[in-house]
Design a protein that fits this description.
CATH superfamily of the largest domain: FAD/NAD(P)-binding domain
CATH architecture of the largest domain: 3-Layer(bba) Sandwich
Strand order of the largest sheet: 3-2-1-7-19
Radius of gyration: 23 Å
Strand content: 25-35%
Largest sheet: 5 strands, parallel
Oligomer: single chain
Mean pLDDT: 87
Distance between the termini: 66 Å
Helix content: 25-40%
Length: about 475
C-alpha cells in the first residue's frame, strides 16, 4: 500500500489520519473534503448554538504529511482503474489510489413540509438543518422552533433555551425520545425541558411552514423566526451505489471495514457493519482506529461498541445503554428508582452483576458510573440503590487516583497526564483545557470527569499554598 485516498473529512476520517501516523504508515495520503473549512466535530455544535463554545474550537489541527483538498467534491469512482474523480472549484481533478477509504458521513433527512423548501428542493432562508458551524449562524430571531424529538432535537432545543431564545420543540410522539427512554422517563424529560424554558408540543405533526410560523396538524401554530430540522439522517451512499459497491442501508463492510471491493474501505456514518449502521460518535471513532491498524499491517477486527446515548443538554442528565427491548430478556434482574418530585428516574437491567441495559435521567453521578462500568464490562457494586443515588465514587477524579496514561477523552485520545500538564502550564478552566488538549470537543461525554479533575487539582494547589499550622 503506497497511496491512500480518503473521501470525506469528518471526525472519523480525522481519527483515521491520526491512527495511520501513530501506527507508522509510510505512504502518502490525500483527503478530498467537500467542505470549504477544516474538519470539525458535529457533537458539540449545540454548545456553539448556545454560545458556550467558539466555532473555531471545533476545528482540528491538520495531520502532518497529509494533503487535504478542501472544496473537492468527489463525484465518480472508477473502481477498475482505481481513480476518484472530483470537482474542485471549476476544475475537474482525478486522484489515483492504492487504497480508498469512504468516510462520506450522513445526510440530513428533510421532511416533505410545504414551505420549508423551494421548488428546487433547497431549504428556505430561515430553515436549516444542523450539520456544521455555518448552520448555527443561520439560526436567528427571537423565537425558534425545532422539529424532531430525537437526541439532536432535544439538545438543540435545550441549547437555544439556554441562550435566551423562545424555543418550541415539536415531536410526533407524546414526548421526545419516548422510543429510547420509555413512557415514564420521557414524560420526566418533557417536564425538565419545560422547566428549562422549552415549550414541548408532543403528539403533533407539522403540516406547513410559513415565514415566521409553523402550522401543526391540530391547527395550532408555533412561532418560528427560524425553523431547525432535526428530523434524522441517512448514510451518504450515493458514490458507492453509483460505483456498484454493495449497499444496503449503508455501505456494507466486513470486520476489517472492507467493502465488496477489496481496495475500498468505509468507516463512520456511511458504513454498515454486521447489519447495522454506526450508532454514536464513539462507534465511528472505533471503526477509524480499527482501520488504521488494518491499513498498517496490523491484525485487527472491528467489534461494535456498546449502544450508548448520552445527551448533551443542560436541561437534564440523560443516558441510555442498550435498548428498551433488552429489559424484556428472560433471566435479567431489573433495579429501578422513580422520584417524580425531583424528576429523577433510573432503570437498570443486570445479568448477574453486569449491566445489560439502562435508562437514567436526572442522576448525573449514576450516569457517569453506569456508563463507565458498561463500557468496560465492570461489575456493579452490590449496593444497587447507592449506585443509582451516586453514593459510590465515580470514575477516578482525584489527583492521586488512576494511572497517568489513562485515557480520559476517548474521542481525541487525551490522557490524564496530558490534562495535568496543560493545567500546570496555566489551563486552569475546563474551556482552557479544551483549547490546550481538545478534550471535550468530541462527543463531550468526558466533560464531567475533566471538570472533577480540574477541581481536584485546583483544590490541591490551594492546599499547597496554605501556611503550615
Amino acid at each position: 500500500m503506497n497511496h491512500v485516498v480518503v473521501v470525506g473529512h469528518g471526525p472519523a476520517a480525522h481519527r483515521l489520519l491520526r491512527g495511520l501516523r501513530r501506527h507508522g504508515h509510510r505512504g502518502t495520503v490525500t483527503v478530498l473534503s467537500a467542505e470549504g473549512h477544516p474538519v470539525h466535530s458535529r457533537s458539540p455544535l449545540t454548545d456553539v448554538l448556545a454560545g458556550r463554545v467558539a466555532p473555531d474550537l471545533l476545528e482540528a489541527a491538520p495531520e502532518p504529511g497529509v494533503r487535504v483538498l478542501t472544496g473537492a467534491v468527489a463525484d465518480t469512482l472508477d473502481l477498475r482503474r482505481r481513480v476518484v474523480h472530483a470537482e474542485q472549484g471549476n476544475t475537474r481533478t482525478r486522484h489515483p489510489y492504492d487504497v480508498l477509504v469512504l468516510a462520506c458521513g450522513a445526510r440530513p433527512v428533510t421532511p416533505e413540509l410545504p414551505g420549508a423548501t423551494d421548488r428546487h428542493g433547497r431549504l428556505a432562508a430561515d430553515v436549516t438543518t444542523l450539520r456544521g458551524t455555518a448552520d448555527c449562524a443561520r439560526v436567528q430571531g427571537a423565537a425558534v422552533t425545532v422539529l424532531g424529538g430525537g437526541p439532536l432535537g432535544v439538545e438543540t432545543a435545550g441549547a437555544l433555551a439556554r441562550r435566551g431564545t423562545a424555543t418550541t420543540l415539536v415531536c410526533r410522539d407524546p414526548h421526545p425520545l419516548q422510543h429510547r427512554l420509555g413512557d415514564t422517563a420521557a414524560a420526566l424529560l418533557t417536564a425538565r425541558l419545560q422547566q428549562a424554558g422549552v415549550t414541548v408540543l408532543g403528539g403533533r405533526r407539522a403540516v406547513r411552514r410559513d415565514p415566521g410560523r409553523l402550522l401543526l396538524d391540530d391547527g395550532t401554530e408555533a412561532a418560528a423566526d427560524s425553523l431547525v430540522l432535526c428530523t434524522g439522517v441517512e448514510p451518504d451512499v450515493r458514490l458507492a451505489r453509483a460505483a456498484g459497491l454493495r449497499v444496503h442501508h449503508g455501505i456494507v463492510v466486513d470486520d476489517t471495514l472492507r467493502t465488496s471491493d477489496s481496495r475500498v474501505h468505509a468507516i463512520g456514518d456511511c458504513a454498515e457493519h454486521a447489519g447495522r449502521t454506526v450508532s454514536g460518535h464513539e462507534s465511528a471513532l472505533a471503526q477509524a482506529d480499527t482501520l488504521a491498524r488494518v491499513l498498517t499491517g496490523g491484525a485487527a477486527a472491528h467489534r461494535p461498541t456498546p449502544d450508548l446515548l448520552r445527551l448533551r443538554t443542560p436541561a437534564a442528565d440523560v443516558a441510555c445503554v442498550g435498548t428498551l427491548d433488552a429489559f424484556r430478556r428472560h433471566g435479567l434482574r431489573t433495579v429501578g428508582l422513580l422520584d417524580p418530585a425531583g424528576r429523577r428516574y433510573a432503570r437498570i437491567a443486570l445479568d448477574g452483576d453486569r449491566i445489560v441495559a439502562a435508562v437514567l435521567l436526572g442522576l448525573p453521578e449514576a450516569v457517569a458510573t453506569v456508563s463507565h462500568a458498561h463500557r468496560r464490562g465492570l461489575p456493579v457494586p452490590s449496593d444497587r440503590l447507592g449506585l443509582l443515588l451516586g453514593i459510590p465514587s465515580p470514575p477516578p477524579a482525584t489527583t492521586d487516583a488512576g494511572p497517568d496514561d489513562s485515557v480520559v477523552c476517548l474521542c481525541n485520545h487525551v490522557s490524564r497526564q496530558q490534562l495535568a500538564d496543560a493545567f500546570a502550564l496555566g489551563a486552569r478552566t475546563t474551556p482552557a483545557l479544551a483549547r490546550a488538549t481538545r478534550a471535550t470537543t468530541g462527543c463531550g461525554g468526558c466533560a464531567t470527569q475533566i471538570e472533577m479533575l480540574r477541581t481536584a487539582w485546583a483544590d490541591a494547589g490551594r492546599r499547597d499554598l496554605e501556611p503550615a499550622p
